[in-house]
């Protein structure tokens, strides 16, 4: 790619592309819907239980990491399907690894949620 240097217009355009990517994720990726639903539930629970600033930081990072991983996974799957529309063992392995990364982060986010919310619900 040719690098013509920094301009404000290019930076603003890159943000537009990024927001379009978020829109694509939320509109078209079914697993992202599940993550968004979980995020809304967690944020609602956080508002109701009065999370501390540090707890909010942990929750926001957990939500952000899962959604970002889902976006990367979705982009890998889309590219892999374009490159190899027929069954290919290497493509399957790549897609499975990407999906596994999302699952690892989702499990970690769930553990963070449990560590934060179980004590609040027990009190």
Characterize the structure shown:
This protein has helices at 8-28, 30-49, 53-83, 89-122. The radius of gyration is 18 Å and the shape is globular. By secondary structure, it is mostly helical. It is 86% helix and 0% strand. The chain crosses the membrane at residues 32-51, 57-76, 97-118.
DSSP, total strands: 0
Sum up the overall morphology in one term: globular
Q: Which structural class matches the secondary elements?
A: mainly alpha
Strand content: under 5%
Helix content: over 70%
H-E order: HHHH
So, CATH architecture? Answer: Orthogonal Bundle
Task: Supply the number of helical segments.
Answer: 4
Work out the count of structural domains. 1
Rg from alpha-carbon coordinates:
18 Å
Q: Taking all residues together, what is the mean pLDDT?
A: 95
Largest sheet: none
- The CATH topology name reads Helix Hairpins
CATH C-level label? Mainly Alpha
Poorly predicted runs are none
Quote the distance from N terminus to C terminus: 57 Å
